[in-house]
Design a protein that fits this description.
With 365 residues, the protein is of the alpha/beta class. The protein has 11 helices and 12 strands. It has 3 domains: 136 residues, Alpha-Beta Plaits; 138 residues, 3-Layer(aba) Sandwich (Rossmann fold), CATH 3.40.50; 47 residues. The strands form 2 sheets. A 7-stranded mixed sheet has the order 9-8-7-10-11-6-12, with helices on one face. It has a 5-stranded mixed sheet with strand order 2-3-1-4-5, with helices on both faces. Strand 10, helix 8 and strand 11 form a beta-alpha-beta unit.
Length: 365
């Protein structure tokens, strides 16, 4: 492949033009596959922790990518949070490599999450723009399905995809949580996050977990739910350790905190089952940071730290509906009034409206 290749200043990876040159040089050599990936939550990291922290994550990802490339493989940075890998292997082999990459990144001291889409080049001549478009569709599918995953195949025709969840008007709250987590590294603390019912607590707590792991915490995320409140250890069996489900055979008595400081993320703890609540009590004193997400006007935590999530504005709802011709003001106002600006009912009503628009084959926004 061509020897001269301009490099990105931050990551020292070749740029998009190098991919174009390498693709042409590859010619009809097969098998060959293209992988596109986005670093999940980079904007959140930049907004909450600053661009220096985001740059460090980008450098760490770049170093891991380069260290795991096979012979004659190439990695590229397109700018922002976008990266690519061109490899002379089948899509199945590249998919296995990508899954191993995700597992390795999850084990970093500051775990990194990627959304990945990939496709195999067709036999004979191939058009780079078409290959990239196919990989990009699968990358977007990975994001829509929850991020931190690989998509190497198209969804079945006729499937209805849930719109990609977006956190809006939470930048100040995210930055406040990041500052609190930074202080808690040096002085143990407890933080309450409050919102009205359906106010987006679970999604916000998920983002707090991303920030905590970026700051070097080990996170244990437990969620209360009315359907699991009567199940023994129901909340424990749905817990996430560093964003990943716990092994089903792991019992609470077998859990050991790692070398990193522990951050407990407790989503509606008033709905924990009795077994999980009893096991959790001694762990509360061991955790360096405890974040409780609760609905309604609860009292603040022992540290006095409190973040309240306000309902979304009408403008934020309009941003969710923005299309090529701008937002549909009538639809956005109706959704805002119907949901009260609360994310959970808003997304439910958006699904209904989008499905109706699809059935009528009309655009929404």
């Amino acid at each position: 492949m061509p020897s001269f290749r301009p490099l990105d200043d931050l990551t020292r990876l070749p740029l998009r033009d190098s991919l174009r040159n390498d693709f042409e040089h590859l010619g009809t050599v097969r098998p060959a596959s293209l992988l596109l990936c986005d670093l999940d939550y980079l904007k959140l990291i930049n907004d909450s922790l600053g661009h220096l922290a985001g740059d460090e994550v980008l450098r760490s990802l770049s170093a891991t990518l380069q260290s795991r490339l096979g012979p004659n493989w190439r990695a590229y940075r397109f700018g922002g949070d976008e990266f690519a890998v061109l490899a002379p292997v089948s899509a199945a082999e590249l998919e296995g490599w990508a899954e191993a990459l995700l597992a390795a990144l999850a084990q970093h001291p500051q775990p990194i999450s990627l959304s990945i889409g990939l496709t195999e080049l067709p036999a004979g001549e191939a058009d780079l723009s078409e290959v990239m478009a196919e990989a990009d569709r699968r990358l977007y599918a990975a994001k829509r399905r929850g991020r931190a995953r690989v998509v190497a195949h198209n969804a079945p025709p006729g499937g209805f995809e849930i719109p990609l969840r977006r956190l809006l008007e939470r930048e100040n709250a995210s930055a406040e949580a990041a500052r609190w987590l930074s202080r808690a590294r040096h002085q143990r603390g407890e933080l309450d996050v409050q919102a009205p019912p359906g106010g987006g607590l679970s999604a916000f707590l998920e983002q707090v977990g991303v920030v905590a792991r970026t700051l070097g915490y080990q996170t244990l995320h437990l969620s209360g739910h009315a359907a699991r409140a009567c199940q023994h250890l129901g909340s424990w069996h749905h817990a996430l350790l560093d964003g990943q489900r716990l092994p089903p055979e792991l019992e609470p008595s077998d859990f050991r905190a790692g070398a990193r400081p522990l951050a407990l993320l407790l989503d509606t703890p008033e709905r924990f089952d009795a077994g999980t609540a009893a096991w959790l009590r001694p762990l509360l004193g061991q955790a360096q940071a405890v974040v409780r997400a609760q609905t309604g006007a609860q009292t603040a935590g022992r540290s006095g730290a409190l973040i309240r999530l306000a309902p979304l504005s009408e403008q934020a709802v309009g941003a969710l509906l923005t299309g090529p011709d701008g937002a549909d003001k009538v639809a956005s106002r109706w959704l805002w009034q119907r949901s009260g600006g609360r994310p959970a009912p808003l997304h439910r009503w958006m699904r209904v409206v989008r499905l109706e628009a699809e059935l009528r084959r009309e655009p929404l926004g």
